[in-house]
Design brief:
2 copies of one chain form a homodimer.
Chain A: E1 7-12, H1 16-27, E2 32-38, H2 41-51, E3 55-59, H3 67-77, E4 83-88, H4 95-102, E5 106-109, H5 114-125, E6 130-132, H6 136-146, H7 152-156, H8 159-168, H9 174-181, H10 185-199, H11 204-213
Parallel strand pairs in A: 1-2, 1-3, 3-4, 4-5
Helix pairs in contact in A: 2-3, 3-4, 8-10, 9-10, 10-11
Chain A binds a DNA duplex (30 and 30 nucleotides) through residues 158-161, 173-175, 183-187, 189-194, 196, 202-204.
DNA sequence: GGGCCTCTCCCCCGTGCGGCGGAGACGGAT
DNA sequence: ATCCGTCTCCGCCGCACGGGGGAGAGGCCC
């Protein structure tokens, strides 16, 4: 393997014992170096600004400023910011999503084995690769929910009917749709009726709901 | 670090050169051993069944059966299945989602550095940790889109107004909502009017759209 | 006691909407 | 040549909906 440069690490956790444990694990590796610790989110921001580490292990729950906000602040204020790995106890924590949105480079469970921790830090330090607990599965499941297989009726809509439904789903009245499509209002009424029939709905509101639920609005 | 047991690996990729390159990279590590190769999805399934590796590096695009289906079959038919890492070329491949749904333990880009590859294999071989390319960001972004920060008007709705909007967004008429809430139709009309005012919409359809766009339907 | 908000309910009125039935024109299938 | 699907448009009818304006009961705050 290529000779590894030293990875400079800052630990942010409000519990001293956790920091000590992490330091012990990481310091045992010759290529990893803990260059700073912080017990609060605010402290984390200033310590990172000062020590310029390669990687930050950030606990989510901390006094004053939580790990998510601290992550945001670090990424927003520093040029060439460190890779931030968010650490938490429970994997179905909703913090996962917040952390990702905040720009965290990785996510780790506290129950992870020492070995995994060390390799995770190395991995995240020199790649754009995110690493992740099995909580990603729920993310993927959520994605599946957000992008359901298009309902059968979607394929049965004619071109104009799709256009009409799309405009309906933007809250336009029949008259507005007619103007937008440059056809007569009566034509729009016909298309709307066809859409209602094919979607099995009784009014435009239900049709719009069907469009959303079918992921019709996400397509194209 | 703890003494590492040997990680047995199967490579599945339809291009011989890719397999050769991966084998060269992985074999350079004393603790990694390539115990089999496959050029098609079907072959991958049988080779894995035969060699019982710890980790499979699976290309998505392969003849006969693609990597996703092969992953599904392996996970469905084998007890104590290997950890499967799906490999692809482009990171915004929609295969990412399919791979996760199929139960892949990890996801790697072909452009990943050798170093990252080696560590990824080690990491995935002995943890339940998924590792991931920056494509996760798009997943997270998608999640953010599906769960946008609630629009300011959401907090301004009273309890009953929220109830009414929720039922509106299920396609119910005012009369149906009234029955469902066990109040008079006139009451529902009042609440609907309040909802329209607070959401800045002009009819129930637009209100329902606002509810969907604000992630109001995902809440609770 | 007096505001203020919420929930409840009433009236009238105009209209956008959806249901019904029909029709002419174009084009592709057979 | 015939049928079928699509797009275009017409009239009529009933009603659910939304706007406007109001009102009483209960709770909360000061």
């Amino acid at each position: 393997m290529t000779p590894r440069p030293t990875v400079r690490i800052v630990l942010a956790d409000d519990e001293r014992m956790v920091r000590t444990a992490l330091r012990a694990i990481l310091s045992a590796e010759p290529d990893l170096e803990v260059v700073g610790e912080a017990a609060t989110g605010a402290e984390a921001v200033s310590v990172v600004r000062e020590r310029r580490p390669d990687v930050v292990l950030m606990d989510v729950r901390m006094p004053e400023i939580d790990g998510i906000r601290a992550t945001e602040q670090i990424l927003a204020t520093l040029t060439d910011p460190p890779r931030i790995v968010v650490v938490t106890t429970f994997e179905n924590d909703s913090y996962v999503y917040d952390a990702l949105r905040a720009g965290a480079a990785g996510f780790l469970l506290k129950r992870a084995e020492a070995d995994a921790l060390v390799q995770a830090v190395r991995l995240v330090s020199h790649t754009d690769t995110l690493l992740f607990p099995s909580a990603v599965r729920s993310l993927a499941a959520e994605h599946a929910r957000a992008c359901p297989a298009p309902a059968p009726w979607v394929a049965r809509l004619t071109g104009r009917e799709s256009d009409v439904l799309r405009l309906m789903a933007q809250g336009l009245t029949n008259a507005e749709i007619a103007r937008r499509m440059e056809v007569g209002p009566a034509t729009v009424k016909s298309h709307v009726a066809a859409v209602l029939a094919k979607t099995g709905t009784r009014d435009r509101t239900q049709a719009v709901i069907a469009a959303y639920e079918a992921g019709f609005m996400n397509a194209r």
